[in-house]
Design brief:
Strand content: 5-15%
Number of strands: 12
Number of helices: 27
Strand order of the largest sheet: 2-3-1-4
CATH class of one domain: Mainly Alpha
């Protein structure tokens, strides 16, 4: 690989314009692919085969009107007083006109809904009064019938007595008695008919009373669910869409916002829930530009030349453009989350700058030692470029390992980010040498060029004194003549770290990292809600207004489905709905329940359930779990099978799924870490130290993220208005990316230590020598990554903020605490044992020459 990269670098330097033109063609092709294939991004996340996904599929089959996405448009008067008739009329007109917007299924006028509620309450009240009057009338009729029956009974007794006395009476008298008996029986028949009519009226009355009671009970259970606040100052327009939330086009959401804001209502504020207002975040902003500017300053300080400092920036930007535009070109084929290209930008910029820096810095150092330009570029590409390929490969492997989670959007994020890193590597080992070839000696400052001339002259003088016929094997460290001799002199002056200092450094580093990691013990996972959006945004205002006027639970309403017996008729169905609603209302933390629909076949009922707190609260999470527990509620003698959907339930499902795969992914990454480093460093303990340090740094990063975004420590400093659960997929992403970057830094430090040890330095002195050789590059690379990632901390999107902060803090801790403090201290304490490996394994393992030492022995810089 090193020889191939040597030839690639030297060839690119000699044919610089051809190489640059090739990358321009690639960039142009990518732009064309983006123009043709870009199909938009989604701001929602989903995982297949979750409980909420099953409910949505059932709704699509039996209640399709409730399977689409939905959102809220919130209106509130500026002065907090009740909305005037004119303002209400304007809101109603906007709601009525919104039915024709793209993908809109229904728009509910809040005032019409409240009027219907009031009318229903009045009707139920009137029905109750009618039932009371009817009962009174039936009771009065029953009394009259009872009195008439009593009169007939008395007449019958008299007739029976007269018949007994007239046993021997003439036939005419007996005929008269028979006629009277016939009249009495006719009267009894008439009373029986009247009783039947009265009983029928009573049954009908009781049926109506039962229906009115059921209606009144359901209305009372739904009392907390409102769309107009009690003081009349706030109204919610509910908008439902024909498309599911994952398939809803951004243009459709933008059309809703445009419609309701195009004609402002005087004295009324309008806001939109997250489902409508949360759009695709901008990929690059002011914060990111500041981060790149800071990286440029670091490059200028390290390289000492504006031209040299510009090369890593240029190559990184080209790589990001190709990688991100190429990723977006596939968005028309696959469903892509909005954060996917942002992650590509983050990594593309960070590793693109660092990887190019490694090659430029190596080339610059060799020029200062008197090397010829093209040969120096080739060797820099074959040595540092070889390390770049290996380092980039570790990052790519870690990102591709996201596919083992089985979560589609995470796998896609990993694949696209891996593609961006791969492009950054390719550009670093091809475009960077081309730019260096064009620059020639101008990559050095004026003083640097003078120093390089002196080094070249000194080497020529020393070379002329040597016997050119002698077969001399020049060691890599002495191959550069006088400058190399000075480097050896400096190396011999390096002293090993004191053992006491090593023990203290290791203890302080470990204790500090463990303390920072403490908040991670209380980490809760979730997805951002409207309350975590930027202060003053549509989503944040809607969330805040709804919480103030309708209660926090109104922001996290649950959609609960219940399986119904197939034998229910029109009379039994409302009673069953009432039983289920009553049972749901008795579950802890349920504020209100309202039946909203029943499937045409009568086998599925849907209810809106209002929890006591918001969608990301622990109580709402517990409520969802309780409702999903078999036997959570029962009607009659049987249990009711419930399903729970809604945004809060979907967020919980995603978070739980990601939390479940986190240990598996961590095990895969740690396993890969150990295997790769055993092969590279030919040691058991060095990989264990590196992996242990990575675990410490990742948990410290989790702790810092929890302290900031969940506990709210220093939140005002970063402009975070509200706190909540940690982004559900953040831990998995951080593990993958920070693993790759940590191995990069470990490589650049440990390889130097191993090289010094192999060339005869005592183990502890080799640690100091390798540390001295690699620390400047690691410090610069770490600062650049912290600056680039940190630029995303001030994004408007909470998802991007948390990603940027987690990556920036993780790199800061891993590079400057674990790699520059803890790892050298532990290596010093281990001494020679750090490099122990069984002989049989040493013979079996391939020789991975990451730093290209063999290449240096084959090629000379002069």
């Amino acid at each position: 690989m090193a020889e191939l990269l040597y030839r690639l670098g030297k060839g690119a330097a000699r044919r610089a314009w051809l190489t640059i033109l090739a990358w321009i063609v690639v960039l142009a092709a990518t732009v064309g692919g983006f123009a043709i294939g870009f199909g938009g991004l989604t701001s929602s996340f989903d995982i297949p085969d979750t409980p909420s996904g099953t409910v949505v599929a059932e709704l699509e089959d039996k209640l399709p009107d409730f399977a689409g996405a939905s959102g809220q448009v919130v209106f509130r008067s500026d002065d907090g007083t009740a909305l005037t008739d004119a303002q209400q009329s304007a809101i109603s007109d906007l709601a009525a006109d919104a039915h024709d917007l793209p993908d809109v299924a229904d728009v509910v006028d809040p005032f019409a809904t409240e009027q219907e509620r009031a009318d229903q309450a009045a009707q139920l009240e009137a029905a109750a009064a009618q039932v009371a009057d009817g009962r009174a009338q039936v009771d009065a009729g029953q009394q009259q019938l009872d009195a008439a029956t009593a009169e007939l009974d008395a007449a019958q007794q008299q007739l029976d007595a007269a018949r007994a006395q007239a046993a021997d009476a003439p036939a005419e008298q007996l005929a008269m008695l028979d006629a009277q008996q016939t009249q009495l029986e006719a009267g009894r028949d008439q009373l029986a008919q009247q009783q039947a009519q009265l009983d029928s009226a009573r049954a009908e009355l009781e049926s109506g009373a039962e229906q009115a009671e059921v209606g009144s009970a359901l209305l009372a259970l739904a009392d907390g669910i409102r769309v107009v606040s009690e003081d009349g100052s706030t109204a919610i327009v509910n908008v439902s869409f024909t498309e599911p939330r994952m398939e809803l086009a951004q243009e459709s959401k933008d059309a809703v916002i445009e419609h309701f804001t195009a004609t402002p209502i005087e004295g009324v504020e309008v806001a939109f829930s997250t489902d409508i207002a949360q759009g695709v975040p901008e990929i690059l902003g002011v914060g990111e530009a500041i981060g790149v500017a800071i990286a440029a300053v670091v490059l200028l300080i390290m390289l000492g030349s504006i031209l040299a400092a510009s090369f890593p920036i240029i190559t990184a930007l080209v790589g990001v453009a190709i990688g991100v535009l190429g990723t977006l070109a596939f968005s028309g084929v696959v469903q892509m989350a909005s954060v996917t290209p942002v992650l590509g930008v983050m990594l593309g910029l960070a590793v693109g700058i660092d990887y190019s820096l490694f090659i430029v810095n190596r080339h610059r150092t060799q020029l200062l030692q008197g090397a010829e330009v093209h040969e120096s570029i080739g060797i820099a590409n074959g040595t540092s470029g070889n390390a770049v390929v290996f380092a980039g490969s570790t990052v790519i492997v870690a990102l591709l390992a996201l596919n083992v989670t089985g979560i589609p959007f995470l796998g896609l994020m990993g694949n696209s980010a891996a593609a961006c890193v791969a492009i950054a590597v390719l550009i670093a080992v091809s475009l960077t040498p081309a730019l260096l070839g064009l620059a020639g000696m101008r990559v050095l400052s004026r003083k640097g060029r003078e120093r390089a001339e002196r080094a070249r002259a000194a080497f020529a003088a020393s070379a002329s004194a040597l016997d050119t016929d002698a077969d001399i094997d020049i060691a890599p460290s002495t191959r550069t003549g006088t400058a190399g001799t000075r480097a050896d002199a400096r190396r011999t002056r390096v002293r090993a770290m004191g053992t006491g200092r090593a023990v203290l450094t290791a203890l302080v580093s470990i204790v500090a990292l463990l303390i920072v990691a403490i908040p991670a013990l209380s980490m809760r996972l979730g997805l951002p809600d409207g309350g975590s959006e930027p202060h003053g945004s549509y989503a944040e205002r809607a969330y805040t207004i709804v919480a103030e006027e309708f209660g926090e639970g109104a922001n996290g309403a649950l959609l609960v489905t219940a399986e119904l017996p197939a034998s229910l008729d029109d009379t039994a169905l409302p009673a069953t709905q009432r039983e289920i609603a009553q049972a749901l209302s008795e579950v802890d933390d349920v504020v209100a329940v309202a039946p909203i629909a029943t499937s045409p076949d009568g086998t599925l009922a849907a209810f809106q359930v209002l929890p006591g707190e918001g969608p990301n609260s622990a109580s709402t999470e517990q409520l969802v779990r309780e409702l999903r527990t078999p036997g959570a509620i029962a009607i009659g003698s049987g249990d009711v099978e419930l399903g729970v959907a809604g945004q809060a339930a979907i967020n919980i499902d995603i978070s739980e799924s990601l939390q479940n795969v986190l240990p598996v992914y961590l095990a895969v990454v740690v396993g890969l870490s150990l295997l790769i480093m055993i092969v590279v460093f030919r040691s058991f303990l060095v990989p264990l130290i590196a992996t242990g340090g990575f675990i410490l740094s990742i948990f410290a990063t989790f702790g810092a993220v929890v302290a900031l975004f969940q506990w709210g420590w220093l939140a005002p400093v970063f402009g975070i208005a509200s706190t909540g659960p940690i982004l559900s997929f953040l831990p998995v992403i951080l593990i993958g990316i920070l693993f790759g970057l940590a191995m990069d830094y470990q490589l650049f430090l440990s390889s130097g230590m191993r090289e010094a040890f192999v060339h005869g330095s005592p183990a502890r002195l080799a640690v100091a020598q390798g540390f001295r050789a690699g620390r400047s590059v690691v410090i610069a690379a770490g600062l650049i990554m912290v600056a680039v990632f940190g630029g995303f901390v001030f994004s408007e999107s909470m998802i991007i903020r948390s990603l940027g902060f987690g990556l920036a803090f993780g790199v800061l801790v891993d590079a400057f605490v674990v790699r520059l403090l803890l790892m050298p201290a532990l290596m010093h304490l281990l001494g020679r044992s750090a490099w122990w490996i069984p002989r049989w394994l040493d013979r079996v393992l391939p020789n991975v020459d990451v730093e290209g030492a063999a290449l240096e022995r084959r090629h000379h810089l002069h």
